[in-house]
Amino acid sequence: MKILVVGSGGREHAIAWKIAQSPRAEKIYCAPGNAGIAEYAECVDISAMDFDGLAAFAKEKEIDLTVIGMDDPLVGGIVDVFEKEGLRVFGPRKNAAILEGSKAFSKDLMKKYQIPTAAYETFSDPDGALNYLETAKFPIVLKADGLALGKGVLICNTLEEAKEGVKTIMLDKKFGSAGNEMVIEEFMTGREVSVLSFVDGKTIKTMSSAQDHKRAGDGDTGLNTGGMGNFSPSPFYTKEIDAFCQKHIYQATVDAMAAEGRPFQGVIFFGLMLTEEGPKVLEYNARFGDPEAQVVLPRMKTDIVDVFEACIDGTLDQVDLQFEDNACVCVVLASDGYPVAYEKGYPIHGLEKFKDADGYYCFHAGTKFKDGEIVTNGGRVLGITALGKNLKEARANAYKAVDWVDFDNKYYRHDIGKAIDEAPEA
Ligand code: AMP
Ligand code: GLY
What we know:
Elements: E1 2-7, H1 10-20, E2 27-32, E3 42-43, H2 51-60, E4 65-68, H3 71-76, H4 78-84, E5 89-90, H5 94-101, H6 103-112, E6 120-123, H7 126-134, E7 140-144, E8 153-156, H8 159-171, E9 182-186, E10 191-200, E11 204-206, E12 211-212, E13 215-217, E14 221-224, E15 229-232, H9 239-259, E16 265-275, E17 278-285, H10 292-296, H11 304-313, E18 327-335, E19 360-364, E20 367-370, E21 373-376, E22 380-388, H12 391-402, E23 410-411
The structure holds adenosine monophosphate and glycine (GLY).
Glycine binds at residues 150, 212, 226-227, 285, 289-290, 292.
């Protein structure tokens, strides 16, 4: 099969790598891709938002399957464009990708179908939001309705901070039109878990769990980022919690979307908070997580091309989705200053060390070729990833491999997977 992957980050590198393991994959393309993805795929310089350009390319090259990695094209309706052209594509249609594209939509869906989540109110004008805050309990969480690169969430400890937050989102429009509507929700405490799943419209099969580290600095300090590293599985995600979520959250969400006339085919990423009252949904994403894909896919035994096709064909119930009984840790190497301002274009050294190192992966997030060298080209640069027989071993391996690579302004967190030490057994 000829397969096209759309996207250019560490997630798409992990997806392309996993597709390359499949005996069914003859030729892989990636648009636009990056310097690491180029090892498995021919990278083509078409933007992920150029739907017509991508569809024309897929037709010209007789692509058998296109896999959309990123949220923006999904929310924008790339799948509908491909389907209209008669092309096979993995990912939710626009009317289902709204599960990620609008927080107001997803909160209303959860309320209507009694899927556990934080209590909330939705506002489309700042005055209503400000009035509501006068009598609210703090801390409180403000969320821009639309896509904001994982940065449209403000946790406010006081009324003053929250008023400032309403101004930032709705008046100053710091997150653009994502802030036309806003959700204000109850602050929850507990451990966070990411659970990714494959969905074919009616059947859902979950992948092994993971835990992200969203803040930029050690000890969960600093600004929210796209994710600075993670590990899989989460030792806090027990069989009992899984059983509860399968019934009350995962299948309930798939059924709710179908009942709304928005059948979801693709990956649903459940961002969960394990609260004292039980698991609750923090957010939905309509795609693999980044860097969740980097720690989950190396542990997946099943041929991913078979799973993609089953999701498209509605035959996921016939797939036996399996994961290795091991662990994986990813430490993101970023450019110092991410997520605000940073320099790029620095040569990266040491990448060849991963070539023959079994169980070690260097997924590229922001890299490109320049004058025959691979240089940094983004805030998140590389996802240094390692397997181990358990989480502690995987973490030690990942941090060992962090030292193999070097570039100017290399920055990373030193405490990815610290929570592992607090787990009952890891
Ligand atoms: P989201 O983009 O909705 O996942 O939010 C980003 C991050 O903000 C989450 O990973 C949580 O750490 C935090 N967050 C979001 N909503 C809440 C909430 N209701 N209570 C506490 N923390 C939250
Ligand atoms: N790592 C979080 C996300 O992909 O949204």
